[in-house]
Amino acid sequence: MYDCFVGRDEEVVPFRARQLRKLLCDLGPSFIKAGQVLANRPDIIREDYMNELCILQDDVPPFPNEVAFSIIEEELGRPLEAVFSKISSQTIAAASLGQVYRATLRDSGEDVAIKVQRPKIEPIIYQDLFLFRTLASFLNGISLQKLGCNAELIVDEFGEKLLEELDYTLEARNLEDFIENFKNDPTVKIPRVYKQLSGSRVLVMEWIDGIRCTDPQAIKDAGIDVDGFLTVGVSAALRQLLEFGLFHGDPHPGNIFAMRDGRIAYVDFGNVAVLSQLNKQILIDAVVHAVNEDYAEMANDFTRLGFLAPGTDVAPIIPALEAIWQNSAGKGLSDFNFRSVTGKFNQLVYNYPIRIPERFSLVIRSLLTQEGICFTLKPNFKFLEVAYPYVAKRLLTDPNPALRERLIQVLFKDGMFQWKRLENLIVLAKENVVKMSSNPALQKKDLQGSRQVVNKLDLKDTIKDGARLFLIDEGIRRQLLLALTEDSQLHVQELVDVYRLLEDQIDIPSMALEVARDFPSVVRDLMLAWTESVLSDR
């Protein structure tokens, strides 16, 4: 306030930002964690302060080994020597809430990572949260005006996530959930957890012997194809976000590794976030609305996701959203990147009553961090070139009926059927299936040694649902018939082009058998729809 009063607020921002970071370090773990959260909250602080606070995510001093080893022994109920044949004398990593050592199990000789919590941290955090909440109560008026919610709500969201991270038994469950989600994915490695050696303050996990994702030369030297590895990473991130609804909330370079067999490995699952089925569908809606340039619906998506309070007038936000998307995608979608969009989005949320819910601040941070890693590995990396094939495959093959509705929205724009868009979706989906038939990070090596088995698009559900909709839904039937006769011409050539793209993907006899099996239920639904229309007419 003094800087602003004397007119030198801009020139001293770097100094004040460093002051704030050092002050938070001195105040202890809760304040360090708060600084890490603020580093991803453009709705609360300015971007120049955010950049300085990002340092807190990597630069935290460790606590003494003697204290850490004492806590491990307390949790195990026996001496370290009885369980581990050796343990590192230096920490492998240190964070605001705990630190990590490398050890070897005495019984099996397996290498493990031991994560141990900072001493007496829980009462300190409860005390700090009480102080945060008390201070927040004085800021409710400003917060309501600026963000559309009480400041205490923001503290409660922060406190909930912080207390979850304190419970290492919860992190162990997160690990098991990730292992279950990726159990059939040969491109992703999740470390095994040793629950019998773990507790609320100590977590023992399989040691990940990987290459840091910020070392492109080491990755190449290991025989891993960088482009293929980027495809693996983006696919794994999108599956977490759009398929499982459970995603890693802190994928910084110290938490992601390249395995020598081409898999991507994740560690540190204390900070994860969950998206409901509804939120996943709204995110896909937002992508569809962006593709169709429907900015009014994009603004409404903000309200549905909790960025805006219910009843907020979205009219002033629509032109700003349009400007952000047009500027970002104007050079072509291949040049799109999250960093440029987020910079403009930060200004939007700072100037309008937009509050970023905690889970979505994690989503934004997660995407930005992973994109940053991708740029380190490949400076001219194009996110959408890698992401679109996965999204196309999901839209065309996912058995979820809600996604089928989104596919229809994508294929129609202003009442016109987008034949070219359908062809592009099929081409991109086929590209994704071919790439992911085996680990793309090792495909060049595999091609030299063995013959690849290439999977096909599984379009059975999509074709059956399409046929069902055509027979039952009069609106869809009318739209598709109009699509075939748009501009007073019969679009036979477009239909032939689509068939040629799909003919090597569809087994006609098995598809006919599936349709025959489904025929009775289709007839039943058709009769019910006809009966309902007759009754409604009366």
From TrEMBL:
Keywords: Kinase, Transferase. CDD domains: ABC1_ADCK3-like. The keyword Kinase applies. Residues 86-417 form the Protein kinase domain. GO terms for molecular function: ATP binding; protein kinase activity. InterPro entries: ABC1_dom, Kinase-like_dom_sf, Prot_kinase_dom, UbiB_kinase. It holds the Pfam family ABC1. Belongs to the protein kinase superfamily. ADCK protein kinase family. This is Protein ACTIVITY OF BC1 COMPLEX KINASE 1, chloroplastic isoform X2. It comes from Cucumis melo (Muskmelon). The lineage of its organism: Eukaryota, Viridiplantae, Streptophyta, Embryophyta, Tracheophyta. The gene is LOC103488237.
